Amino acid sequence: MTNRADVHTGSSLDDFLEEEGYRDEVESAAIKRVLAWQFEQEMTRQQKTKSAMAAELKTSRSQLDRLLDPHNTAVSLDTLTRAAQVLGKRLVLEIRDVRPRRLQRKKVG
After folding, report:
1. Tell me, which fold does domain 13-93 have in CATH?
2. What is the pLDDT of residues 2-33, one digit of tens each?
3. Which residues in 21-53 are b (16+ Cβ under 10 Å) and which e?
4. Which of 7, 35, 44, 100 lies at a C-alpha separation of 20 to 30 Å from 84?
């Protein structure tokens, strides 16, 4: 009997999205969803209302709603950084290899 984990049935989702030209868009959307979720979780933990958060950011409630909208990827790094600071947090970004070297497939040919 073959272990299902050992069977490779095709390309990865990343490979598919790359081939179709959607990978960057999907990755940006996923990052923004995670950030929006983290901001909302921290606001809830600190019992901070949207109005209070907007006031501390010196921005409008509608601008804060754009920041917290998981589908809106057009939010500046400055806005994200300031929002993190208001919550007593720090935004951390890093650049990584596209695929860790140990997982890269060798081309046969």
Report:
1. 434 Repressor (Amino-terminal Domain) (1.10.260)
2. 555 555 555 677 677 677 776 777 888 889 99
3. eebeeeeeeeebeebbeebeebbeeeeeeeeeb
4. 100
